[in-house]
Please model this.
Amino acid sequence: MTNLIYSPEQLNAHSLDVIIVGSGPAGVAVAERLYQEHPSATIGILERGSVLTLNHISNIFPNELRRPFIDRFKIKPWEGGFQEGGMLLPALGGRGIAAGAHLRRFDKDDFKLWANGEWPDSVIKDFPDYYNDAELARRVSVSAIRGPAQTWALGLLNSFHAYPPPIGVDLWSEGGFEIGRGYDSSVSRLWKLLIQDTLEHENEKRRIYVATNAYVTKIEHKDSQVTGLRFLNTLLKPDNDPVLLQSKIVVLAASTIESARLFLHSQLAPENPIAGCYLAEHIECRAKIMVSPITREVQSQGVSVVIPPQKTDKIDPMDRFQIHLRGQPDRDGNLSIDIGGFAAMDPEPANCVTLSANRDIYGIPKAYIAISSSKSDEQRVKRMCLRIREIKDILGGKFITERFPFEEVQPTYTEEDKAIQKMDWGRSYHEAGTLRMGVNPKTSVTNEFGQVHGISNLFVADASLFPCVGIANPMLTITSLAYRVADHIKGEI
Ligand SMILES: Cc1cc2nc3c(=O)[nH]c(=O)nc-3n(C[C@H](O)[C@H](O)[C@H](O)COP(=O)(O)OP(=O)(O)OC[C@H]3O[C@@H](n4cnc5c(N)ncnc54)[C@H](O)[C@@H]3O)c2cc1C
Model:
């Protein structure tokens, strides 16, 4: 029998060049690149979660089902706090399955703007080519939303240099965001690779092996080498013994929080004292406005607009935020617009992931997160909230106070708090940092190719590599960086 997906134990029967931990956008990008660029490399992916639904194979995830689907998960993958492990969607494809499709490049300024958060020069130099590859692979194009409402919004917000966002949705739709196709395409690209591999190779000569329900609990290492990975089969009782799996190279792509947690639990930190530090995410503020548009035509269309940082002669760190507008007509003929502001965060060593005293059901310490905003973060957020108000006024809208179901309105909230919500930590889903890359081993955990300092066969490929979070949605940069890490691994195999 030919299996597309393996059980964790079955992987042990195969000799692997590379094992990737995690099958989100980062893990899949490494696998995809290695598969295409290295003609003989054998690749294993260990994914803690299961295969979810057939929908993801075709990458069909209707927008109206996204929220109820997410709510089904008891742990509320991205609604809980960091402490509850709330940043994960353990499933083949990771959070990319439900990610919202905005695939935006970092602005040039963001790579260098932050003291303590400068990206290595070689990465900046190589990035245009990697961004091109990632955009082609994900069919990034300008927002699918067109029509009179979009023209109306872009026209009114012209002075803010508003533009339609680059997204990975390839269908044109008249109906606003009810687009049944798009979102992150990495999981469907993985299925394509698996099918291609099955067709091209006999079972024992396959090049890519994916095991689901495989929870990696430890990286075994001796001297300056990783010797293997310990993993548990999550379909068995929690007290089953971890199995050892070996490969020449190990790649961490389990997400910013989980890669750091695994790194710390594996006691790799003594050699890398800043492992876990410099966690940052986008500080997110949300508001909803209702506009009564002028014409019937405008009423029947959606809006999708991004407002970038405003261009001035000198780059102002206080202006490093972006604002997204997503509008849909409602039944009463109004335009209801969700506004999301994402502000950059200063890279601070004190914002970090450590191991909690609490353990998960497998006995592994949970991640504990310490994070707070700096004074300049707060100023930046204040300015972003002012801009959200300006946008509301320019569009002639009025705020609708609609809080998310899981958030309670605190008695201390002012009217302004109620109109513009500052989301809890972890709610932007754009976390980064923790195993940062750099050229100086004292201030970074990996070198500029994602290779862990002092451990030549251990790589990191997800957003934990980011020296700073910038303002762009991270997935395009994650993919590009993962391609670059894969190219370096190719030379190491
Ligand atoms: C609702 C939503 C909307 C979003 N919209 C956008 C957007 O528009 N644009 C954008 O750029 N980004 C967006 N994002 C963010 C984007 O989804 C993440 O940045 C991206 O998924 C991170 O990729 P990753 O591969 O590093 O991690 P993940 O996607 O989290 O994948 C990590 C994988 O590793 C697995 N794993 C973890 N630990 C282990 C372990 N120990 N053993 C085995 N497997 C493990 C997990 O189960 C998971 O499958 C959005 C996120 C959400 C939740």
About this structure: The longest helix spans residues 375-395. Confidence is low (pLDDT under 50) at residues 55-59, 175-182.
